[in-house]
Amino acid sequence: xxxxxxxKKALVEVRDLKMHFPIYAGVLRRHVGDVKAVDGxxxxxxxxxxxxxxxxxxxxxxxCGRAVLRLYDITxxxxxxxxxxxxxxxxxxxxxxxxxxxxxxxxxQASLNPRMTVASIIGEPLDEHTKLSRAERExxxxxxxxxxxxxxxxxxxxxxxxxxxxxxxIGIARALALNPKFIVCDEPIAALDxxxxxxxxxxxxxxxxxxxxxxxxxxxxLSMVRHIADRVAVMYLGKxxxxxxxxxxxxxxxxxxxxxxxSAVPEPDPSLxxxxxxxxxxxxxxxxxxPPEGCNFCTRCPRVMDICRRxxxxxxxxxxxxxxxxHLYDRHQTSAGRTAP
Amino acid sequence: xxxxxxxxxxxxxxxxxxxxxQGEVHAVNxxxxxxxxxxxxxxxxxxxxxxxxxMMSLIGLLPSPPxxxxxxxxxxxxxxxxxxxxxxxRQIRGARIGFVFQDxxxxxxxxxxxxxxxxEPLRKHxxxxxxxxxxxxxxxxxxxxxxxARRRLGDYPHQFSGGMRQRVMIAIALACDPQVLxxxxxxxALDVTIQAQILELVKELxxxxxxxxxxxxxxxGVIAGIADRVIVMYGGQIVEHAPVRELFGNPQHxxxxxxxxxxxxxxxxxDARLRVIEGQPPxxxxxxDACPFRARCTHRMPRCDRENPARVVVGPKHDAACFxxxxxGGERDV
Lengths: 341, 334
Description:
Chain A is of the alpha/beta class. Chain A contains ten helices and 13 strands.
């Protein structure tokens, strides 16, 4: 778990994780296929870092985040958190591990119980996992509210009395209640207005500095991920196609999908906008229940080759710390197939 | 852009109020703007800033009650749309003013084929025959880049992907050759790569068809790429208005300036820390008697609490509703 090369410890190690959802059809409800939402992803998350997980809707990024926390019974693969394999743990032993790994959800409206007060929402994990006295519990709730910038006077209010940004703060306070090491943030800012997004992102960064948290930050917002993440993984149709440090990924994307994705983001600058050459992908993402043969991206790739339609490219390290799954970077291809990006 | 072109749509002093059990909400306050032939006007603002309500008020799409358009004039052609009766409005909507809404799944009818929904305006507004409408419908699907158009006319909305559905919506909006197209967050529900496809399509269609477009969005990046002119809305009012390059290059209102600084970029310099706009957008319980942005503004002056700044000219074709002058850092001389 200690990576000699970079001198950092991996807190989360995911290997060949698969999460398939069965499809049943017909009168007999026979198993006719699988939605391969996550289809063999591997990555590490180092202690204290933020790994960004980006991709378009339906690529499996949220499923991946939930599977890593074992909110699903995974199909195959291994997940180690702090060295312990949790991929096959039963619900009871999983429960004792939960305090260390928490989640912040996308929709603060749907993930907070409307009939519970803020204090009881934040206090619920404390009731479940600790034996604090009444006074200690109250003190901890106030402490958490201070940490996320919620006014203590609002402890007895209900979620609907808060704005979207404040509700997300309640969700973050709940996730922090048990001093977790690792938090999966699943699109935590997607439902918020631009001017409020920055407030929540800054809060997450402050908390990380203060409490030494490790984040898996799932988002479709490439510019926000560039801001918050140390390393970034790009997912397409259930697989990670590229994983690299933030500056490399944004400065010199290797995979054709990453290149197209980054070039599709509109820049808030008219002169830059006029100057950029867009890579416009044609068509839509194929169905994850029936992915194409070979590379998943071969149906839309602007640089597709024959081999891509036959052989699924391996996800491998092409340079130290840079992982890509693309035939353009196969060793025997490097001279012939590689052109300047 | 045709500079001296006459406006196709001229909105003056529009006020819209919602009556709720908790009292009135003043969603749109004295909004005035015009739309010139062939131009693309971007309207930017956060949720609740009044951008959608403004456009819905124009053509009587808001249910009344609770909505009430209290004041204003909307000149389209030679008539005032706010005075027009329902029949006249129905003749204009869908035929001379087209619409594209944010969510293509909820704005298409799931129980009718796409072909039927495309042919409906053609037959109702243009009086086309069934076969004529069918031919035109196929042309329209081809125009918006849907492959195998003839066969797809018989498909239902759920058989299309999100991006394709939005193309269908655009085709329906364009069916009767409208002079004005109002697009309300048309790419917000789409992924970036699909958004890029739709933006390219709109640019291409503008060149081919030359209609005027109002494009409502919260995404400044999208605006930078396609708009000619931009209106920034906050708290139910227009706070700044300028040609696109002027707005991004020389923003004058503190809200616009702060907004441009809070959004991180994909290219170029990366800021170590995001700038934030503290606080929350206002709740518009009463007609504004002071600047709606004052509580979040870093350049607040005593005057901002007393009066609501009017829009003043601050540059070439550029106006802002603010007392603060970024050039001097003091009060604007108005």
